[in-house]
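Readers of this paper often ask what the protein records in our data store actually look like. This encoding replaces a full spatial description with a residue-level series of whole-number codes. For reference, a complete record is included directly beneath this paragraph.
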Amino acid sequence: MLPAFTLEDACVTPFPETLTQAIPTMEACQRCKKMRSFRNVPWVVLLLAGFVAGSTMVSYARIQPTPTSASSIYRQLDLFGEVLQRVRSDYVEKPNDAKLIEGAINGMLSALDPHSGYLNPTQFRELQVQTTGEFAGIGLEVTMEDGAVKVVAPIEDTPAAKAGVQSGDLITAIDKDDIQGLTLEDAVEKMRGSAHAPITLTIVRKGNAEPFDVKIVRDVIHVDPVKYEADDDVGYIRIITFNEQTAAALQQAIEDLNEKIGPRLKGYVIDLRNNPGGLLEQAVMASASFLDQGKIVAIKGRDPEKEQPYQAQLSDLTKGARLVVLINGGSASASEIVAGALQDNHRATVVGTRSFGKGSVQTIIPLANQGALQLTTARYYTPSGRSIQAEGIEPDVVVTEENPSGSKETVEAKNVVSEASLHGHLKNEREDTNGKEEELGSSSYVNPDKAKDTQLVYALDLLRGVDSLASDAVKKRAEAD
């Protein structure tokens, strides 16, 4: 029997455009208590990472069914068998048995939550490609809404981003074929293809009277996880995703900026906006790069008494330099772990708008047919014990971006994709949320002009000791709002 491993789902949607966005977690070896990654053993993967197996297998005790529950499940299985046989014998055309079973499995898992699902052998093999942060496609994170594919966020510097596809766009047709009635998986399959092959997306965008076509040429997507530059006396570091290279790239960025800016350094801006997540182990190591001590994150499964904590251990590469972390509605999963760890440890000021709110952990279980089961098995908690599931991280300072249309209004949170907007999402189990209406996400817009990027400008000013929210310009914007 193949083992099951705990993984942290880095993707915001159940079926990302590549269907390969999964991530393995680190596990604490019960014998030596040292942190080990899954990287050195063969068979496990998570949504943006590839096959990795762990030195420690995580298993959750199965609940033995009582006679009553066993009897009930057997009756339901009899019902399933009856329906299956009726379809096989009486359907107008001879059905494909394998397709019927796969559809039944997908239906069962989709009834659980948006992040549980089945990966067939082809999809599971594709996960291997994602480990290195390189794959063929157009570069979109997507979800399904009202029969259309909704763009969560284009991946930076990919064909989709360069073609002008925006967060919140609705894709209604692919190569002129209407996608109404297709599953998200089917729509994603149509968007995939060989590098250099063209594709035309028909897009409906809020503010545009008519749908319009966007022509894109597929390419091999190289996801550079970290970008950085010196802004005079401040180090700017943008973490785009958490793949296998993120922690090393972050360390290099800090070293280079320290050397370039020298004693003039006022601090760092850590930009996590529109970061959909990635490898949990990389999120843990990234958090530890700014912490000498303290808890980073804790994971709890069905048994709330069994907690798996991750701790920082004297590894602050910035030597206590001031930090401002930027988040928005597109900051999800692993990026929320980093923001939550630095916020709860009072290590950074978090600026921007509320994050996506994905606080669950998935396990990838290889199956005998070479496919895999992706199953939600746990929640994660910030150092203070908060579950951010369907709530997100609230910034210490709320700073909104101006509307990309150029109007004085800020971008509205209405119709923005968030965990709370996904059908069937897990509820936040905290008692004080009972009866409280969940909030539906915040804007994920980032102005491409850094001089007009309100959140970034505020972060830079804050590190330089200027409260730009009190400036006349910001006051005018606030009045206009």
In short: The chain has a mean pLDDT of 80. DSSP finds ten helices and 22 strands in the chain.
